[in-house]
């Protein structure tokens, strides 16, 4: 457990390492090839041994780390294994001509790196000298970059297959390690029959160490798949519709993942949901099922029947009666992970399942209760075991007559006709029409909310007066002018100079006027697997969401996120933009790596664990992307056409759990439209469901530069007024809230009354209530705990955190005096440059050699832009007259914040000034 609230990076690393190890899923282990014997001689194949993927790509993968331990370093280093040097040298030679290809820019990273072809001779020779072969296969994908059903992404390449064929043909002891963010095609396992296969996922900066622990048996594998691995990609029920650039029909409805396979296509599964082997064996005996009016309790005794200590995940699935609605054969109803059990040791676990969680959502009224959660009458069977396929019947309960669990109101229903899957009378796959919208949401939305109080002008009240109870929030907010109300909606970023450098967003007191009312500026940063600071500051990179979910270990994940919470607090960041919690609807979604599972219960519980960890330290996470961000291709526009039932039971369920059990108070809407309306401007989603039905009290923010629309209209990032009407409080992000640099329609809507002052005030209240919970608020109030003092001290001593950034606001041209630049040997100066007008810019540095420097001295100055090297200028000691060095930034720059680093490899330079000038 965490010691005395101290931010101890070594302890943090230990927990992350344990999580990476517990997230690893062992699919196969013939003849106990694993764990590796201590003196094993190992030949490592696959170039991924030289480039470990710590995470996927895009905003969720941009954590600058101090180190990343890959698998081979861990094996050879701490593991002390004898790694075949001849094979290694072959790779090293080959890599000279086939260097790692990073791709050029956002979403341009290749999914895989070209593999080295193996000769039979090399493999044969390796076999003579080694007893074991480890083959590593790597893949990446991520934001704005889906996987594709092609070789090199979902499928192996020919060279990779050839590597498996040759190595598995010669070695008996073969272990395949998958360093991937998503599940990939696994048909090759049968073809080449390696002895062992492990999904290691992308384990963050401690990933290699986690892998080592699993390979050596220090951690007995106990990860379980959070997705079904099917025989073929076309077997996934969403395959026919996935990837459509404009409209994605959710025909499979609630039959996502194992819900589909267990109900309709059992024989299409290679590895079932919840599957994962151990080096030991377990017996799971379920003892009893108790039922009272509110819950079912399943008592389970889990015993280690093998001869090595290990942990087991006990999973309980429910089979509800088919009733009128039709049900999946299995639905995960609860789970628990055992403690570390020694051989022969048993543990009793009680898994409690609230009755309501077994209910189904009737979106048609066929049960007599439209728009309601109901428990249909009949027998509910509970299956207990180590994965969905093997779980066996432990008992059942009977619901005598239909129970209404919660009567709600229609919301977010589809407007496009389509048919959805359901079991037919004989249990075979059949289809039915999806119930369409019957209530025009305009009727709810168009009601203009009157302000609680008329505009009063400044009465001298500050936000602190609301906290102390001196005035109500309504009275306080009635002082805000129309302009203030527009500005409070606008979050600023990326990398706002008002908050921790390099973070994604700032909101709250972003203008002088808002500040004068006592609003602090809150800071949010990506997420989800560590803190992203684009200025180059270092942070800790955690295992990806899928890996964490595969641990099925809530305590461990919570513990890890306590460290994350401390790290956020240390960096003065109030809010991590994560967890990502969209459902793994299809294996090709590039962002699956950030998300947890195909199952909503597990998804919700993982989010709860992360939130609770962070809440311990007064910071929070933003659960995202609400909702149905299930494909990256054309994510800005692709419409999710989905039934209310599938939304409630699958796509919104995890969020509901995070709100109700995890106390989430910050949510990010997604880019895409759902059933005709973009989510940021979707009143049904953001107000009716989230706030009215779930009782959510926090803030809702858009995804960065998102669009909104009014029903039937085109969407645009400028239609922020529609977002405010829906009660999406914050538009993220603009460069300058006061200047309305995003050119939004807020002021116009307020003036014309198309969005009322009351609606603006409602969001302003949400934002202010949120601000009162933040560390930014505490700091503004001068509240520093001992913990804050310790954290600040440790931050100041941390050379990985870039301190003292010099802000430079560039309105066509800006000048920085040379006095502010430390030119001593080994020193760096960091500038945070905010460009007000997009265009082509150049840097002009007027410099010379210092007087006392010898004529032949070389005086280098290296310049970096956003961490990328741009140029080195080298003066000589004879350059004693001022000269202006010009560095053209060849690419046009956008209105945004950029980071420039000046690094002085040797001292001796004097700088008169530095200018940033717009040239066109
Ligand atoms: C992503 C979000 C992220 C935001 C800020 C967007 O592109 O979709 O998940 O939090 O950028 O970086």
TrEMBL record:
In this chain the Fibronectin type III-like domain maps to: 312-388
SUPFAM superfamilies for the chain = (Trans)glycosidases, Beta-D-glucan exohydrolase, C-terminal domain
Which EC main class describes this enzyme?
A: hydrolase
- One record GO biological process: carbohydrate metabolic process
Gene3D superfamilies per the record? Answer: Glycoside hydrolase family 3 C-terminal domain, Glycoside hydrolase, family 3, N-terminal domain, Immunoglobulins
Q: Its Gene Ontology molecular function terms? A: beta-glucosidase activity
* Entry keyword annotation includes RNA-binding: no
What UniProt keywords are attached to this protein's entry?
A: Carbohydrate metabolism, Glycosidase, Hydrolase
E.C. number, please?
Answer: 3.2.1.21
State if DNA-binding is listed as a keyword. Answer: no
Q: Name one Pfam family in it.
A: Fn3-like
> Could you say which protein family the record assigns here?
Belongs to the glycosyl hydrolase 3 family.
Q: What is this protein called?
A: Beta-glucosidase
- Give the species this sequence originates from: Herbinix luporum
